[in-house]
Amino acid sequence: MPKAPLFKKEILIGVSFLILIPLLAHWLFSWMGFTPTDEGFTLAYSRRLLDGQVPHRDFIIIRPFLSPLIHVPFVFFGGAYTFWLSRLFVWFQLACISWCWVLIINRTMKFPFSPGQAFLAAIISFAATAHSKHLTAWHTIDGLFFIAIGLVLCIKGRQIHKLLGYFLLGLAPLCKQSFIFVVPLSLLILNDWRQVKYWIAAVLPGLAYVGYLISAHAFFDALFQLTSRTEFLSAGLLQYLSKRVALSFTVGYLSLWLILGRFFRSESIKKWIAILMLYGVPLLGTAGSLWFGVLAGTSLGLFGILAGAAAYLLTTNSGPQTWKRISLLVLAVAWSASISGGYKTPALMSGPILLVLTAHVFSLQKQQRALHYSFIIASLLIALSFGVARTRYIYRDLPATQLTKSLDEVLPGARHIKTNPNTFDFMRDLNEAVKLVEAEHKRFAILPDVAAYWVKAGQQNPLPAVWPHADELSTTLLMDRFVGAMEASRADTIFIVQKVEAKELARGFVPLPSNEYYYVVGYARSHFVKVHETNYFELYK
């Protein structure tokens, strides 16, 4: 097919995908589930920006603040539908990530996917990327969003596109620090590392960030917060030395050795090895992982298969240069995304990993009509399994059929969101506790797990952290700052302290311990006086 009609079809299919798929997913799934912990975590920071607070200086945030800045419009304009509309944007981000990687793979590998197959590939990537991950504004998704769009521009030949692309790549570390590795690795993989102008474009966002911090007198606060914890050893290294990754790495390496090497002379045997190990097993494994809600774990296996295939290409100098380039790009981004405290898995890049493996097979077996028919079946199976996953494995909530309570009655900004009866009762009881505080004409602070309440609360959060547990306040300096703020607020603030663990609400009401993880809870209980209590909260001053 001539290039001009191909690109026109690509644009039409892409626009259709980016409109229809997010809207369909939003209509089907966005009403499902709520947890007062992670939900609204980023949006609560967005609210603080709207309140005029300076990040790092006025409040503690252990990641750069670009993600909260991106989501400010949804807090400002969202009204009663804030959480629901925010979820629509996240669906759009996931769809955009998926479609961009289809474009990157197609243009890098000389179009292994026809326009129709590209749409199916994007469906597969979307389902695997979103899997059963809880749907909320999140820094990792924001970073992957910038990276995907940036790489689409970087692989184009024109200099202006590359400059803009590397600038967007430079925005990703301002969402999550671990994406800092993507910038130099992309420059190396795409062979642009000799061009100083591209390095400058990539570091400009970071320089602007530092300049803002200095001008706002927040530089040293930011330095202490952004370096307060790292998961590089556990998430970035040790988990990739597991037996699961080693086994899948071996599968990927041996598959390409058998396909591209001279072990078999029979092209028929080579064809079936390629189809089975690099195509059938990953696609069917993904469908099964979605169905049983385990993709967050099995995605390490997908990573290992692609890493093994890439290792064979590099060590034997086999296959086209573009195969090596696209494999390394996907692996670099997936690895960077997995360096996390709460979600240390490459699952959010499962879709692109699958597509690269599939593209390798399609490039080798272009004339296999049965292969293309099976791709339709695989996309249907994965889409079906995705639907099962989204309705059955809802993060810290019950299956969709048991979500019978609308949050609109108990949480401002949560219209069209439903949850289980326990979480509903918990949030309703929180409202009663807030009313008790307001009756005394005092400010209230909530400890420790209800970040979502602050998104549309009637007052500003008087304390410097929205989710004050040991992961967010991991150094003595940060914990002392938070406790100091509690003491400074003693005269005019009543502390609403949970009795039960918010993360366990779907299963029942589990007493909240006063352990090191919830140090601030123990501090409130031992240094302040209890003046009232409700079913699930105690009030201290």
Largest sheet: 4 strands, mixed
Quaternary form: single chain
The total of helices stands at 21
Helix-strand sequence: HHHHHHHHHHHHHHHHHHEEHEHEHEE
Summarize this entry quickly.
The chain is mostly helical. Helices cover 60% and strands 4% of the residues.
Question: Can you characterise this structure?
Answer:
This protein is mostly helical. Among the domains are: 137 residues, no CATH class; 136 residues, no CATH class. 60% of the residues lie in helices and 4% in strands. It is built from 21 helices and six strands. Strands 3-4-6-5 form a four-stranded mixed β-sheet, with helices on both faces. Strands 1-2 form a two-stranded antiparallel sheet. Strand 3, helix 20 and strand 4 form a beta-alpha-beta unit. The protein starts with a helix and ends with a strand. The model has no long low-confidence stretch (mean pLDDT 93).
Based on the model shown, name its key terms.
541 residues; mainly alpha; two-stranded antiparallel sheet; 21 helices
Write the layout of secondary structure elements.
Elements: H1 3-29, H2 41-50, H3 66-70, H4 72-77, H5 82-108, H6 115-130, H7 139-154, H8 159-171, H9 182-189, H10 196-215, H11 219-226, H12 232-236, H13 243-260, H14 267-292, H15 295-316, H16 321-338, H17 350-364, H18 369-392, E1 405-406, E2 418-419, H19 421-439, E3 443-447, H20 476-488, E4 493-498, H21 519-527, E5 530-533, E6 537-540
Parallel strand pairs: 3-4
Antiparallel strand pairs: 1-2, 4-6, 5-6
Helix pairs in contact: 1-5, 1-6, 5-6, 5-7, 5-17, 6-17, 6-18, 7-8, 8-10, 9-16, 13-14, 13-15, 14-15, 14-17, 14-18, 15-16, 15-17, 16-17
